[in-house]
Structures are given as structure tokens and as C-alpha cells.
Amino acid sequence: MSRFDSNPFEEEEVNPFADKAGRGRDAGQSNYGGGAFYMTNPGSVPPATSRLSPLPPEPYDRGATIDIPLDNAKDVKAKEKELQAKEAELKKREQELKRREDAVSRAGIVIEEKNWPPFFPLIHHDIPNEIPIHLQKIQYVAFTTFLGLVLCLLWNIVAVTTAWIKGEGPTIWFLAIIYFISGVPGGYVLWYRPLYRAMRTDSALKFGWFFFFYLIHGKSLTGILPAIDLLSGNALVGIFYLVGFGCFCLESLLSVWVLQQVYMYFRGSGKAAEMKREAARRTMMAAI
């Protein structure tokens, strides 16, 4: 055997990357290239620079719409002018409102915003921020007497309603209703609000208005004599009358204390003399 002959025991190598179609095309033909070394067909190996096939393009939706602004330069300028006009009008209104507020403050007029009770504001009430600190205690007790008046008049209706159910006439019930409807707003307008403003502005005239109406602000239909009279006939109605009488007694004691404290401040601060001078001046002006 020649030394150039191939090794009969050598196994045939198969390239896994070779073209299957090429191998199938010439199945019986050997790829032997001669010589002592075996080599596959170079054309069957894929080139090193080959790449993966690109992904298919995304589908294009021809029905999709794109909002493109169509305003031209003239429309933009028109809108700018409109916005500038509105801004100038707002500034003009703001200046006018400020001018009015300044005029009101110079005239001494206070704009009172309703803030009490918090759940349903009916009146303006702000003792911590508007009343001097040395007068706040008196004002708080005065406000307590006003709330006490409301409670007493409400209990008055309950007591006389019970008496009416137990056989008393309806006249006293109608009187209690009228007393409550007129007494609660009347008490606030006639004596509590003048005292509040007198404490806030230190006005002698407001103090005089308070003294005049505060002396007559309370009267009860459930007095001690009706209570004693009803106890013998109906104990329940008599007890209701006694509770009302006790409420009005407590209200009267607090009212006396408030009246005394306000009068002491009124005399001690010189408001009495100021009130006399104011009354004399008004008399002279009326005579002229």
C-alpha cells in the first residue's frame, strides 16, 4: 500500500451547516477533494457576515387620525389680544374693588361676615379677634346670657305646652310662641349687638343703647306662683314650671353681673361724661 493512500479506517466527517439540498442533489457523489485530508464543499458553509432576517413591518392603520393645529398666525394674535383685554378688565375690577374697600375702611364701616353658628351662620361673632382682651370675659358672659335667654324661652314653650295638654287654656301657649319669636331676635338686635359693637368700637352711644334695653330683656311665663298653683292640681306641669323658673333665676343673676361689670367699665373709662357731651351736642344740633 502506498503511503499516499487514504486511511481506510478513517470515519467520514459531516458538516451540520452544509446545505441539505446540496447534499440531496448529489447523494451518490463523494465530496472527497483528493489528497490525505478530507474537506467539505466550501460553498455549502454560510458566510460569516450573514444576519438574521428583519422582522416584518408593523401594520399601518389608515383609519387613525392625528390632530394637527390649523391655527395660523392671525388666529394666534387674535387670541392673544382677547386674553390681554380680559386681563386688563380683571385688573380694572380689582382696582375698583380695592378703592371701595379703602373708602369703606376710611369711613369706619366694618363689613360683618356671618360666621355663627358654624353649621348655619346667622350672625357675625368673633370675640377673640375683635374685642379687646381685657373686655373679652364680660363679652363672653354677656353672650352666655343671650344663649340662656334663648334656652329659657324655649323651655317656656315646653312648659306651657305641657300645661295645655293637661287641660289649661291655649292662650298662654300662643303668648309663649309670640314671646319666643320676638324675644330671641329682639334680644340680639336691641341689647347684645349694641354691647358687642360698643366693646369693639368703644362707642358711648352704643353703651347707652345697651343699658336701656338690657334692663327689660327677660320675663318668664313659668314663674314661681304659677308653679305652686299647678303643683296641687298636676305635679308634672308644676315641675316643668319650677324648672323654667330656676332657669330664669340663673339668667337673671348672670345678667346682673354683666350689667354691673359693663357699668363699672363705662364709668371708669370716662364714657359717661363723653355720652353727656354727645347728648348735649346732638340737642344743640337739633335746636339749630
Q: Nutshell version of this structure?
A:
Helix content is 61%, strand content 0%. With 288 residues, the chain is an all-alpha fold.
Report on the architecture of this protein.
The protein is mainly α. Helices cover 61% and strands 0% of the residues. The chain has 9 helices and no strands. Helix 5 (171-201) packs antiparallel against helix 6 (204-214), helix 6 (204-214) runs antiparallel to helix 8 (235-268) and helix 6 (204-214) packs across helix 9. The longest helix has 34 residues, at 73-106. The protein is flat and about 110 Å long.
Which descriptors apply to this entry?
mainly alpha; 288 residues
Assign the structural class, choosing from mainly alpha, mainly beta, alpha/beta, alpha+beta, or little secondary structure: mainly alpha
How would you sum up the major sheet?
none
Give the beta-strand count. Answer: 0
End-to-end gap: 162 Å
> What is the N-to-C succession of helices and strands?
HHHHHHHHH
Radius of gyration: 52 Å
Average pLDDT confidence is: 77
Please bin the fraction of helical residues.
55-70%
Shape: flat
Strand content is: under 5%
Number of distinct helices: 9
List low-confidence stretches.
19-38
